[in-house]
Specification:
- The protein has about 350 residues and is an alpha/beta fold.
- It has two domains: about 180 residues, Rossmann fold; about 160 residues, Rossmann fold (3-Layer(aba) Sandwich), CATH 3.40.50.
- Helix content is about 40%, strand content about 20%.
- The strands form three sheets. It has an eight-stranded mixed beta sheet with strand order 2-3-16-1-6-7-8-9, sandwiched between helices. A six-stranded parallel beta sheet has the order 12-11-10-13-14-15, with helices on both faces. A two-stranded antiparallel sheet has the order 4-5.
- Strand 11, helix 7 and strand 12 form a beta-alpha-beta unit.
- Helix 12 packs parallel to helix 13.
- The C terminus is likely disordered.
């Protein structure tokens, strides 16, 4: 909820209740930068479709705070969206959802929940243009803005550590479809070139990928860092020249977020992505987009990017795009402007001095 906190700082007179997606968040009550966080127990924690808040604490919080607007980070056909939108409707509080994929799940009950929630909305935030298009196909008069779920911190002056050869990185969960296999095969094709690879992340495919690296005789040039907390990731970027995120196979909900990609761009790391999910939309012309599962094409791209003169205009464009589109400040401004526009009254977001309220499950 970093962007929401930025919105609160920018406009401390706002009053919004924020219901996040069903991630397991353990937190006490706290107030930070004008934001109050109220932990609410939930059933089915971690289940994206069926997670819901405890009814009594949710209703009590809504009645106590009387939010000017309720923002729900959940798909419209989720139990959380129907529960919170119903409670907000009884208080005549306008409701906005943040949707990632916008596609309806199978089943009559999911379709019913989706229709009910979409009918109640005054607006929606979409994680991608594809999500926006799907939402508008279901309700053409719904105001929808494409805004990242989170912004990224943009360093004042990125610094890169000196190293020999091309420093390649991959950051993400190590599962079958993430394309690390393709990256390893591409690097094997570039065996004669000077490069080394840093892999940040963990997952069920790690052991298999390490065996593949050994079979390809690449193991000595690869550093497996394991999973790192977000605050430690900033120390990784100065050691990289190129970040490769090349997942294989497109599914309805594949690659919904480009948070890591945007952060790398902010640190002047050249980015190479496959044509999957929201990734090409995030990169636009400030990176290289390749077909999924194409090791030969990826190897050729990495050979080109080994030349610093070729990387320079790319990383400059990437940083400029990150500042303009994905920084905390830029995302907060766009989000707050949209919430103001869709509120029932012109002063609905900025009219009452009660702080911004967050409900965490």
């Amino acid at each position: 909820m970093g962007s929401l906190i930025q919105s609160a700082i920018a406009n401390p007179q706002s009053a919004i209740l924020y219901a996040p997606s069903p991630r397991i968040i353990l937190t006490p009550w706290e107030r930070q930068s004008g934001v109050e966080v109220f932990p609410i127990p939930c059933s089915h924690p971690g289940e994206e479709v069926e997670c819901r808040f405890g009814r009594r604490p949710l209703v009590s919080l809504l009645h106590d705070k009387h939010p000017n607007l309720v923002l729900i980070e959940a798909e419209p056909d989720s139990a959380l969206a129907i529960q919170v939108s119903t409670a907000a409707r009884r208080l005549r509080a306008p409701v906005v959802v943040f949707a990632w994929d916008g596609a309806s799940r199978p089943g009559a009950f999911a379709r019913w929940r989706r229709r009910r929630v979409l009918k109640r909305l005054v607006g929606a935030l979409a994680g991608s243009e594809a999500t926006r298009s799907r939402l508008l196909a279901e309700r053409s008069d719904l105001p929808v803005a494409v805004v990242p779920q989170l912004g990224v911190a943009v360093p004042t002056q990125p610094e890169h550590l000196p190293h020999e050869g091309l420093a390649v990185g991959h950051v993400g969960r190590l599962v079958a479809h993430k394309g690390v296999d393709t990256l390893l095969q591409a690097l094997a094709l570039n065996r004669a070139a000077a490069w080394h690879l840093t892999v940040v992340g963990d997952g069920p495919a790690r052991e298999r990928l390490e065996r593949l690296a050994t079979d390809l005789r690449l193991a000595a040039r690869i550093r497996w860092r394991g999973a790192l907390p977000p605050e430690e990731l900033a120390a990784v970027w100065p050691a990289l020249d190129v970040l490769v995120l090349a997942p294989e196979g497109v599914t309805t909900r594949s690659e919904q977020s480009g948070q890591v990609l945007a952060e790398a761009m902010a640190y002047e790391v050249a980015v190479v992505v496959s044509e999957t999910g929201v990734l090409p939309e995030i990169v636009d012309t400030a990176g290289v987009v390749i077909p999924p599962a194409d090791a030969t094409e990826l190897a050729a791209v990495l050979r080109r990017l080994s030349d610093p003169a070729i990387r320079l205009p790319l990383v400059q464009a990437a940083r400029a795009r990150a500042l303009r589109q994905f920084s905390d400040e830029a995302v907060a401004e766009r989000m707050l402007a949209f919430l103001r526009n869709v509120s029932a009254e012109p002063s609905a977001v900025s009219g009452q001095p009660s702080g911004l309220t967050a409900a965490d499950g």
